[in-house]
Structures are given as C-alpha cells and as structure tokens.
User: Which sequence fits this backbone?
C-alpha cells in the first residue's frame, strides 16, 4: 500500500488545535507521513474556525492555498466553519471532504475513500443531537514542554454574539479516566505543563450523573507524580465562589493563573449579551481568588462595539478594567455572526468606533501588564523555559506560573527558579536562582 503524505493546519482556538492534532495522530497511526503545510502532500487537513468573519476568511484562504499547492490532492476541511457551511465548501472552495465537529474519529477512512475513489463527500451530522463526548486523543505529542488537553465539548449558554453553541453543540464532558490516562501518558513522555481546555471548561461534569465536577478532575490530576504544572483554560466567573477557591488553593500543581471571561464591564451590555453575571458578581469572584492565592494572574477577554454600546457603557468597561487590575487583556471588536441574536440587534457600531475603542483598551492593557509584572521584581518565580530569546543571546523565554514571560540564561524544556531583576516590553528579565551569586 502506498505511503500517503498529509499536511495539516489549524485556524482558531486551543480546542481546535487539539482536535487537529488528534486527527493527525489518527492519520499517523494509519501510516500517513506528516509534512509541513507549505509542501506538496497527498492530503491537506484544514481545521477551520468560524468565531469571526476574519476566521471564516482565513479558513477559506487556506483551502484555496492547498489546492494551488497540489491540484490533485484530497483536501479535507474539518471543524466549525465546516459544521456551519457543510457541502457549500466543496463548490465554493474546491475541497473534497467536509467533516464537521462529529465523526472526526472516522476521518481516516473517509479520506482514504476520497483518495481511492475521488468522490467528494460532506459528512455533517446535526450537532444538537450529540449528547456524548467524541473520544479523541493526542497520541504521542511532539511538544515536550506544554500540552493542551481537551476535557469537554460544546456550550449551553447561547451568548447573544456567539455562533459556537450552534457548531459545537451542547456541553459534553470527557470521561475522567480518559483524561487521567492521557495526562499520565504525555507527562511520562516529557510534557511538563498541562493546560485543561474546552469550549466551556466551567461546565465540566455537569452532564455526568455520578457527581464528578471540575474539582474532582483537578484533585485526580494533582495525584499524577509525573505532572509538574497544571493550568486551567478559560473559566466563567459564575464558577468562582469561596468554596471553589478554597478547594483550588489545595491543588498543589495548579498555577495561580485564572482566565475569567469578562466581555464587558457594563451591566447593561452584559444583559444584552445574555451573560449570566453582573460586574459586581465578577468583582466578587476576583476578590475570592485574591483571598486564596498570592497575587494571582487574572486575565480576560473583552468585546468592544457590541450592538448598542454607548460611549458611557464603554467607559464603564474601561473603568471596571482599571478597578479589577487585570494582568493581561485580550481585546476583540464585535463581529457579526449570522444566526445569532446579536446579528439582528439595532444600533450596530461603526468599525471606526470599534477600532478606536480597541486601541484605547490595548493602551490600558500595556499599562496593566507592566504594573502586574513589576511587583515581582526581586522575587523568585518558577518558569517553564520553552524557546530561545531571539534578542538575547544565550537566554531562553518561558512562562512563569502566573503566565507572564520571563527571559533568563536557562536550559530549554526545564522548569527553573528565576530571580526577577527588571521588566522590559512585558517580559521579566532575571537570572537562575542557583546562579544568584553570579548575578
């Protein structure tokens, strides 16, 4: 049998990246040889995203690019845009196989059929009918420092701006034993840090009937001797109460970094977004975290220019961000997604206004990041070093437990203690604690 080559690429979030890596692992197990995406391949696997119009465009561009690279290749589009647009992508973008967010475990057989019979095919199941987590795993990861492990799929919230529940389906949790097995496997192979990710991590376990919760999972993972660091992906503020923080503070490997989705600091905007908390609720969650963790990193997402957002409402968000004192912001302009409630709301905000508001929050983010990192000058922090620092000879860049970047003359793929000396361009500079006498 011929040895086929496959090239893969991913648009979008860490969940999509996990799904893509898991599908490529299935191809590898079937004897396919993986090559870079810019090379000639027999098969191109494109994991698509549809969270914004920009993501749609980028996904389609990659399909056309793959066709130009090899006109005879089988091009497989998977993921969220595929789930939304289905067989339309075959005609519009010249792909051969379209797979949504179900049946991904069958991707090898589907692609082999296309290779042998040259039949174009769309395999799109109704995502809302799915109630069981589809088991995918990374296999043996190539990355030896940090791995993102998917623990759940789907979301039940239906925020007014978000298309994801329509293309990912209802919340479905991955079985506890599967997660433990995968974390044990990858940490034995050299992964030092595991990040738990999902479409709605906070809902983990809510579909189980045995009482399993996210805290059950954290407690179980904390007992794995080969796991050095554990980090949580994006969380909903409604999850964060005193009981959760008290229990989480006892998870020895858990990094004191919490990404709490905000989206807006205005109560009226949050209401229109169908977010299930107020700014006061959010602030209380942050206060609980700071009560139980020493200077935790609080990062967040913010959407500006949501339909009807007035200057006064934006100013409420701006001031709320200053009040919280985040360690880092991810700022996005609102993007219309057809099929969502917000797409038909009146008073859509002009792009020029969105851009100005984005820029104002980015400027604030620059200040907040510097303020947060500077408080660690003179302290010793634990850092996972991952890659060379291109601007500093002999130095490597890594992330502290509180998720700020650190540069020091360290060994790659190691966790080392670093004494912070100064901050430059949102990167802490320091030296290895063992070498402090030479610092």
Assistant:
């Amino acid at each position: 049998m011929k040895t086929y080559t496959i090239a893969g690429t991913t648009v979008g979030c860490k969940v999509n990246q996990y799904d893509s890596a898991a599908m490529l692992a299935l191809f590898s197990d079937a004897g396919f040889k993986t090559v870079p995406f810019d090379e000639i391949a027999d098969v191109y696997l494109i994991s698509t995203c549809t969270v914004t119009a920009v993501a749609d465009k980028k996904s389609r561009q990659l399909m056309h690019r793959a066709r130009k690279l090899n006109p005879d290749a089988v091009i497989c589009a998977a993921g969220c845009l595929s789930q939304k647009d289905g067989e339309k992508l075959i005609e519009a973008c010249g792909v051969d196989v379209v797979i949504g967010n179900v049946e991904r475990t069958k991707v090898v057989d589907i692609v082999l059929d296309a290779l042998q019979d040259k039949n174009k095919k769309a395999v799109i199941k109704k995502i809302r009918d799915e109630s069981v987590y589809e088991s995918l795993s990374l296999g043996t990861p190539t990355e030896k420092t940090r791995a993102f492990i998917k623990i759940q799929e789907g979301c039940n919230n239906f925020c007014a701006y978000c298309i994801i529940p329509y293309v990912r389906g209802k919340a479905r949790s991955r079985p506890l034993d599967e997660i433990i097995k995968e974390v044990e496997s990858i940490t034995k192979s050299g992964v030092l840090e595991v990040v738990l990710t999902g479409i709605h991590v906070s809902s983990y376990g809510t579909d189980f009937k045995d009482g399993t919760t996210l805290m059950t999972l954290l407690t179980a993972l904390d007992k794995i001797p080969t796991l050095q660091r554990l980090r949580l992906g994006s969380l909903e503020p409604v999850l964060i109460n005193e009981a959760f923080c008290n229990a989480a503070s006892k998870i020895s490997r858990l990094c004191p970094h919490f990404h709490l989705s905000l989206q807006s600091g205005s109560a009226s905007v949050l209401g229109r977004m169908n977010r299930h908390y107020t700014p006061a609720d959010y602030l209380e969650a942050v206060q609980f975290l700071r009560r139980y963790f020493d200077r935790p990193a609080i990062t967040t997402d913010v959407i500006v220019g949501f339909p009807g957002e007035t200057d006064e409402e934006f100013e409420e968000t701006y001031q709320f961000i200053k009040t919280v004192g985040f360690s880092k912001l991810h700022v996005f302009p609102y993007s219309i997604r057809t099929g969502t409630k917000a797409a038909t709301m009146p008073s859509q905000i002009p792009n020029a206004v969105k851009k100005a508001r984005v820029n104002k929050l980015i400027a604030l983010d620059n200040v907040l990041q510097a303020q947060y990192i500077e408080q660690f000058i003179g302290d010793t922090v634990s850092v996972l070093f991952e890659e060379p620092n291109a601007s500093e000879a002999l130095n490597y860049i890594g992330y502290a437990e509180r998720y700020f970047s650190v540069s020091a003359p360290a060994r790659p793929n190691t966790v080392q203690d670093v004494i912070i000396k100064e901050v430059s361009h949102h990167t802490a500079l320091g030296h290895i604690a063992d070498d402090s006498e030479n610092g």
In short: Residues 143 and 191 are 7 Å apart (CA to CA). The mean pLDDT is 94.
